[in-house]
């Protein structure tokens, strides 16, 4: 694609077929981007999931004094498996959502460019990064918003699995003493059972608990995410080429990691508010399962500068830095070697 039709190429440039290790058959060519993004996301999600568990528990429970305290108590009570509870839903859904996001973004970007600039001939001298930013923001917003429709139910089941043992243990204190004895074993449900429990108690709409904040989080963060990644990578590549230093792989790693940190920091209050809304529903579902009356509904509104909304931010941005370095390095490597 020429620069005039799309500005900076979406995420990665054109492949050099002379360097290709493998060429997809013709019937898979239309899905190449999606398939490679899925594989890269599968690897990055697995690596980052334990930190995501700690982040969710810090967001939804005040009884952890620090990240180390959360890790220590989780390991003491649940072992290593405690950090991977609910991983199967995001391994499938997050990887699929990421691949869909990349696919939608790369498909929408040329159209967004034409919609924003049309036949305007005055933008030829505009810096490529500045010209690319509104296109990335619009394409990323559409990509994130579209994917959120698919991702929200799966993310809710992930949150359910990550906090269910904590919520259930806490609600057991409201049971009579003789019933507490009969409920000592707290069992985390499978992903399938979690889906059924949510639908049974909350209906199909219950799977979209907190969707407003999920939509805002994914739409805004995707716009910021892709804008920062493409801008930083293009800028660093230009500097490296001018001074003949570094390598393209370094720009991919740094741009990927920093795009994850900055986009996640920007929308973290949305994520915390969503998690707290979902925690309230999980609490009442588990109370009903134990024969307890549900708690009165709480009004959860986004208070952007409340300190509590940033609990778990540190480990979250660390996870995001690692996950996105892995994702973009694997994805761009695959895009350069698998045609």
TrEMBL record:
Keyword set includes Transport: yes
Pfam families the record matches: Mito_carr
Highest taxon of the lineage: Eukaryota
Alphabetical list of InterPro entries matching this protein: MCP_dom_sf, MCP_transmembrane, Mitochondrial_Carrier
UniProt main location, coarse: mitochondrion
Membrane topology: Multi-pass membrane protein
Solcar-type repeats, residues: 28-111, 131-235, 247-337
Subcellular location: Mitochondrion membrane
Coiled-coil blocks: none
Record's keyword terms, sorted: Membrane, Mitochondrion, Repeat, Transmembrane, Transmembrane helix, Transport
Its biological purpose: Mitochondrial transporter that mediates uptake of thiamine pyrophosphate (ThPP) into mitochondria.
Family: Belongs to the mitochondrial carrier (TC 2.A.29) family.
PANTHER family (UniProt xref): CARRIER PROTEIN, PUTATIVE (AFU_ORTHOLOGUE AFUA_4G06390)-RELATED, MITOCHONDRIAL BASIC AMINO ACIDS TRANSPORTER-RELATED
This protein's name: Mitochondrial thiamine pyrophosphate carrier 1
Organism annotation: [Candida] anglica
Gene: ORT1
